[in-house]
Amino acid sequence: MDAREAIESGRTALGIELGSTRIKAVLTGPDHEPLAVGSHDWENQFTDRLWTYSLDAVWTGLRECYASLAADVERRHGVELNAVGALGVSALMHGYLAFDADGELLVPFRTWRNTNTGPASERLSAELGHNIPHRWSVAHLYQAILNGEEHVGRVAHITTLAGYVHWQLTGRQVLGIGDASGMFPIDVGAGGYDAAMIATVDRLAAEAGVPLSLAELLPAVLVAGEAAGELTAAGAARLDPTGRLRPGAPLCPPEGDAGTGMVATNSISPRTGNVSAGTSIFAMVVLEHELGRVHRELDLVTTPAGDPVAMVHCNNGASELNAWVGLFAQFAAALGSDADTTTVFQTLFTAALSGAADGGGMLAYNYLSGEPITELEEGRPLFLRLPDSSFELGTFVRTHLFSSLATLRIGMDVLQKEEGVRLDRMFAHGGLFKTRGVAQRFLAAAIDTPVSVGDVAAEGGAWGIAVLAAFAGSGADRSLAAFLADEVFAAAALETVEPDGGDVAGFDAFMQRWVAALPVQRAAVAHT
Q: What pTM value is reported for the model?
């Protein structure tokens, strides 16, 4: 079946992911290869000291993204896109979207990036005996209760961004188990929220003067492969105001970007994991057994199939590095160079390969926002160096690349050294790894583990949710792992880098200085 025939006959799957800086859509065919893509760039806003996206921006972005995809379909294949065989929505995880009984948003969307929930996170973690990170939805809800916010008495349901969009497209308030695990702890055996912990939160809310039934506020939990509703006429119109998109497409459970990253890298089996690097950077490691104790640095979430995962989530990823590359691009333009951004990135990243293995006495902190792993509520990007450091380009860029991985390394040390979790390989994806063999090599050194990259994740989470949509619509009686191994990744080619001993020693030395100088970062927050 050729691409045009697949599109016309509806043998396709559409995946849409709302990431931190881009909304992306991927249309795939029966072989799961991308047929067309669309995108829309957007940015969060820092309003009233909280990071947010407006719902108007959500729908403007979704419409622009879908229109871009439809135009790409017509340009590539000469056919109008008016139906899809299956559909899936994913988005950045966590955060707080609270609605009243009439479906009205009660307060602006509070995203994962906010770190104002410290008291709630600390109390809930202690009461539940389970690490509740700052960005989890229940932490946002309980913090609003502790703050005495007026709206909490009118909350009828809360959800994530993916859950909200799915609800608007289908009329169903459901969530994939991976995304749900970033709202509230999951009982893996039961395949749903932990009932005993729900009762504890109900008690805490009542003690604070806000009686509620948390189970009634949270979306229903579904696992990969389950039906999650159909695209309604109203939903189709919201996505495509031209009226060309027909309703009726089945949807898979909405998922978070962490879950789609696991699918897009075939990292859903024990002893595998993936690192996603963008605005944030996080590692997902599928566990063979329960952890020995609660760790503040580790989130316990699940795969889209419901298997336990340890997540090391760092609020700050490659944004500060990107800012420095942008500065070099401006300098190149001022000199009259016509080098594009991709060329500037490749040139600088390649230079990092010749830099000093330990950063050469330079240090950088990529903290644009707060970072719970290092107990910072706000961020101040910093670059500093020892007076006798060799101030040259390769080491400078390597230092900033190391900085992008440093906080992740802290969490991975807890997982690998304290808990003894073993990894056969990590898969790396995201913009940080587009220049071949650079950030991949440094990540292998940082976690002393083979790191693989490949074209399989080139389209990222949007492709991952398209794969989940195809899985839900396949009707096959098999596991997600079998579906990925036998049908999606059977012919996938990967490039794997083994950790180099010199790089490992160099990163270790860099980390010793980086951790020792964290008080400088804290002082910058306190005094600026």
A: 0.85
